[in-house]
Amino acid sequence: AKELGRDNFQFYHPEMNARAMERLVLEARLRGAIDRNEFIVYYQPQVNLDTRQIVGLEALVRWQSPELGLVSPAEFIPLAEETGMIVPIGEWVLRTACQQMRQWQLAGITPVCVAVNLSARQFHLKDVDSVIMETLRETGLCPSLLDIEITESTAIQKPDETRLTLERMKSVGINISMDDFGTGYSSLSYLKRYPLDTLKIDGSFVRDINASDDDPGLVDAIIAMTRSLNIQVLAEGVETEEQGRFLARLGCRVAQGYLFGRPLPAEEIEPLLRRGYV
Ligand code: C2E
Ligand code: CA
Ligand code: CA
Ligand code: CA
């Protein structure tokens, strides 16, 4: 069969072909979605573990597709990243989130920080910090109310450029968070080198905490490390009261997760934001 060559492989692997076709269809739909602006920003509260006060919101994109319904970012962000479509999508999310925060602020709601995810592709654009500054200027949002989330894998690409970009953002007052901490290639040296404000402990470590065992596992070590580095820590994916209590006992002050609230569209998060706690 090998002699038939590459052009015939689809004959032998029809399922592969089907997957490639699906991808093409999704890619075409995603391009259309950008033109028709089918995206929505959801917001998930970040809360103080002791007081349940809302101290921030994470902006999480959704795709409202007429054909597919509400599509989770897990299903389209990787493709968007590969094709570069993440750049216009990400810039739209950033602008929308900043606009929304400013609007709430003008409506008299006590402002909290908004955290926006930047993909590797978006972060490593050479003018990313000017795009962000321009967006802040246009929307009138104070830089100290913006929190940029990047992952470890984004941060380890081009470390010198990354540090300079982060320092430029930092110098104007933007907050920097390291997302999904512990899932990637972690190195103490860059945690020390980069101007990080917050480290977000990935939900997979939080999930390891359960009532039946007292083993603090890696969470304890991560929290202790942030203390010695003088970086804030936020626990992600907190789903149970036990996990919340356990984290608080270890010295973690801020958390995010279904226990405190799922991501919601702006109009549904607004009453919670007005109240100030969950
Ligand atoms: P992430 O940045 O780690 O976001 C946290 C994800 O965990 C969100 O999934 C959120 O809904 C989910 N989550 C929150 N609390 C809990 C919990 O208690 N339990 C569990 N099991 N999950 C929880 P979502 O919204 O589906 O987003 C998935 C990923 O897609 C994000 O992970 C992020 O990497 C990416 N993403 C979302 N919005 C954007 C965006 O605007 N730009 C970029 N570049 N990536 C985005
Ligand atoms: Ca995130
Ligand atoms: Ca995360
Ligand atoms: Ca994640």
UniProtKB/TrEMBL annotation:
Sequence ranges assigned to domain EAL in this UniProt record: 23-277
Source organism superkingdom: Bacteria
Protein name: Diguanylate cyclase (GGDEF)-like protein/PAS domain S-box-containing protein
